[in-house]
Amino acid sequence: MNASNRGNEDPALLNAMALRAQAVREQRMLLSLATPAVLCVIAIIVIPVGWLFYLSFIGGDGQPTLEHYQKMLTYKSYARVFVTTFQVSLLTTLVCILIGYPLAYFLAILPQRLAGLFMLTVLLPFWTSLLVRTYAWLVLLQKKGLLNDFAIAMGLWETPIKLVYNLTGTLIGMAHIMLPFLVLPLYGAMRKIDRDLVHAAANLGASPVQAFWKVYFPLSLPGMVAGSLIVFVLCLGFYVTPAVLGGGRVMMVATQITAILENQFDWGAASALGVVLLIATLFVLIAAARLLKLDVALFGKR
Questions:
Q1: Contact criterion met (CB below 8 Å) for 179 and 241
Q2: Nearest to residue 56, comparing CAs of 256, 270, 231, 296?
Q3: Which has fewest Cβ within 10 Å: 55, 95, 278, 298?
């Protein structure tokens, strides 16, 4: 292109081309800055998950096979394991909601300084090892544990009841460990709610109960949904607490994978269980995103 043609070009077109070139340079610069993080994600997540998928299709003789997935369709024990996993995860989430919502509401209505002080009691379990907390519940809940001894001394029941090595003990331990994961996002959402909205509802004739359910509760739903999903997904892969407090009677996917590796040393079967659990978790998240409209609830998008 000669000088006369360049002079005849539209200045707006030249400006648009320059802006586009600048945007491309900025994108390349941002990509170069993100390269270390992308490499870490590939090394920590993508490669191990890919290797898990690969092992799930390899038989004991080292040849490609679908036998591990066929066993899941053939044996009903695998179906029971997945049902138990989702049942325990759902019940734990419900227990955390029943306990965590009033707790988060209590913290949200306190002055900022007092709320920060009480929040330390919620964060305190994070300072203690998960294994220590689980065995502490084992000491409390066993037949000759502190809870049974106290209840018998108070006359609540006459003989020790079975609170451990069953579903009850598993739910108690998991709810205690998972409760902070619900309270923290719920408390953050409640702190952002404008109290004047509740006062306005009361001035318009709403009772305290109506003001809560019609105004306050819907505004707190994003935090509750976020916390519930965090708790539910984390429970799906839980191992320590069900293994200790369940005593082998509450067989979840994680404990089943450990049993397969310890008894059969079959990496293919264990990997297949992990792959199916991963896919099931993704389906749960996708279904929740569509049914609950998570983009609207969490980010306010329309």
A1: no
A2: 270
A3: 278
Confidence at residue 293, expressed as pLDDT on a 0 to 100 scale:
63
Predicted TM-score (pTM) of the model is 0.83
**191: alpha, beta or left, given left = phi > 0 and alpha = psi -120 to 50?**
alpha
What pLDDT sits at residue 9? 58
pLDDT, average across residues 219-235: 91
Tokens found for residue 68:
């591990």
What are the backbone angles phi and psi of residue 58, rounded to the nearest 5°?
-115, 130
| Residue 143 CA from chain centroid, whole number | 32
- Picking from 187, 186, 219, 225, the residue whose alpha carbon sits closest to that of residue 200 is 219
Q: Considering only 3-17, 136-150, 211-225, which range has the smallest mean pLDDT?
A: 3-17
Work out the pLDDT band at 92, boundaries 50, 70, 90: very high
Q: How far apart are CA 245 and CA 167, in angstroms?
A: 8
> 20: number of CA atoms within 13 Å, CB side?
6
* pLDDT (0 to 100) of residue 171: 94
Contact between 125 and 184 (Cβ < 8 Å): no
Write down the pLDDT at residue 157: 84
d(CA 22, CA 27): 9
